[in-house]
Design a protein that fits this description.
The structure holds two protein chains of two kinds. Helices cover about 35% and strands about 15% of the residues of chain A. Chain A contains nine helices and ten strands. Chain A starts with 10 loop residues before the first helix and ends with a helix. By secondary structure, chain B is α+β, with helices and mostly antiparallel strands. Classes of the chains: A alpha/beta, B alpha+beta.
Amino acid sequence: MTTTAAYQVSHLDALEAESIFVLREVVAEMERPVLLFSGGKDSIVMLWLAQKAFAPANIPFPVMHVDTGHNFPEVLEYRDRRVAELGLQLVVASVPEALASGLVRESADGMRNRIQTPVLLAAVEQHRFDALFGGARRDEEKARAKERVFSFRDEFGQWDPKNQRPELWSLYNGRHQPGESIRAFPLSNWTELDVWHYIARERIEAPSIYYAHEREVIERDGMLYAVNEFLRPRAGEERFKARVRYRTVGDASCTAAVRSDADTVAKVIEEVAATRITERGATRGDDRVSEAAMEDRKREGYF
Amino acid sequence: MTTETNAEVGADAASARPMDLLRFATAGSVDDGKSTLIGRLLYDTRSLFSDQLAAVEAVSAARGDEYTNLALLTDGLRAEREQGITIDVAYRYFATPRRKFIIADTPGHIQYTRNMVTGASTADLALILVDARKGLVEQSRRHAFLCSLLRVPHLVLCVNKMDLVDWSREVYEKIADEFTAFAAKLDAPDLTVVPVSALHGDNIVSRSEKMPWYEGPSLLHHLERVHIASDRNLVDVRFPVQYVIRPQSTTVTDYRGYAGQVASGVLKPDDEVMVLPSGFTSRIAAVETADGPVPEAFPPMSVTVRLTDEIDISRGDMICRPNNAPAIAQDIEAMVCWMDETRPLQLGGRYVIKHTTRSGRAIVRGLHYRLDINSLHRDESAGELKLNEIGRVRFRTMVPLLVDEYRRNRTTGGFVVIDETTNRTVGAGMIVEAG
């Protein structure tokens, strides 16, 4: 036998192999999977891995975007181009349409993070999806640190954190009754830095807003928000130009930018490696509501 | 962005020594200082973020804790914070230039054996903590036993709170000797004992000056360098077929590839292989990934294997070698850890077993004994296994399973038991023998 030293893989190769295993496992065991694709870096990497998992065949499931109506145009453009390149079917679960039909009502603060959930669940029911791939990572947030790779949801789309299925070895249990579903998280064990190292290694194109650029912003609650049609300065808030980039891409009315000069992948990696603040802490107004904001949203069916 | 920039990064990454990945499970209670130890590892490797720390400090202050309670970092669920206990396995991540680490942080409470078993199932290494003032307690022995049952290849005992015993060599050696003797009985493969003070950081990242008598490595030094590559089984070729790739396209025709993750062994083009359960033989035409063909595949690679002959192969089949094959078995003897609080495992009980990529119905045909994990006493009169109990069970399966002993192969030797009426995962099994 050859020496074992030759048979080693890097941590990125190990993560890639695990993610591909999860993607294939879901497709093999579930009836109607769909991949949640926002154009954010995690969903971009997840889609890339899906392409690898089934090559040379096409990706055998559609993608879905939960569209809050508050979008960054660069991200929408990216989404449509990627979907066209891969010949995928795109399902758009539209919050503006749900507002118009009365399915949901605008919340008092104008944030649409919470009202996304019923819209997502209605689309899941309409298309009878039984497995949803999400790009969530366990390093993002402490409620997510306890979530399974195959996360069971009841017929109301709810997560019960105290009643999760034990997950051993790589044996994932996706069994469910009609109406129930599984959220599958192929990137569970990736960190923000792993994602960027992989984007660099695989030369994956990411939407331009992830790299440093000039933007008109205001400062609110210590965070920098872009001024756009969804977010107007309040009294006393001054607009100014700053060199920024986005660390996460979400609803344009509650996702903040960070000051940055990182205009290349290499510089982003350097910046992420040196940062002392988590990506959600730095950029998400919606997680600041309470200590358990994420857990509460997840219980209701958020991804 | 620009391709030039990406090329630069790619070149840098290629020249550097690649980082590998180590998964470890931690066991011990909050009282042993486990959260402090994890907090220390995260903090000293710059993996703990200032907003996480600020949030924990604010909550600690509001609750009137006398010091910043680092347990709040890992206790992420509302119920956990309210009750001050850890309910579930939490996964934590940190990295040094040498390695990326995944910690499965498991609760130490007695009622949560199932979490320890879950965390240990994928671990390369287990870290057990004891309080130097208390020495080994029942719980430490239980943790060590579970690690050996799950065949975690490396074990580290951290004798913590050395500052509270005046950095005493005698105290440390007494605990180390006692644990080493106990571990020998368990057939624990590789044991390292480190005296530490998680609170003050002694022997965590670098060697402590307070304990010049200790000549071993610091904890992080050991975690970074412990040799895990040879833990993998590279001898027995086992490739559970996960998914058959057959493109429905006009550009790629007649393609038939068997996708899966290598469980053990090394697969190369032109190797003679056998497919189970059919027993047909063929040769490997190519081992492929999306990036092209590869000269060989080994664990944990996810690849697609193509064969020279057209034979009927589907998910749940196993590719192996003609002279080295797993057993084809419907009678399975296994150590089972029961994980369901509502219904115990009972003789005659009907379940579904998921083993590699194959699932099928099974009946409990025998319960030989229940094991007392404190005394290792075997209770042969036991009629059932309740939550967190472990016993030796005989299953009869409806479809044959393609199995190896768990001690030889953690992937083809492990299975989960699923309750068909609730769809819950209710047990974990480690195959002792098949026939």
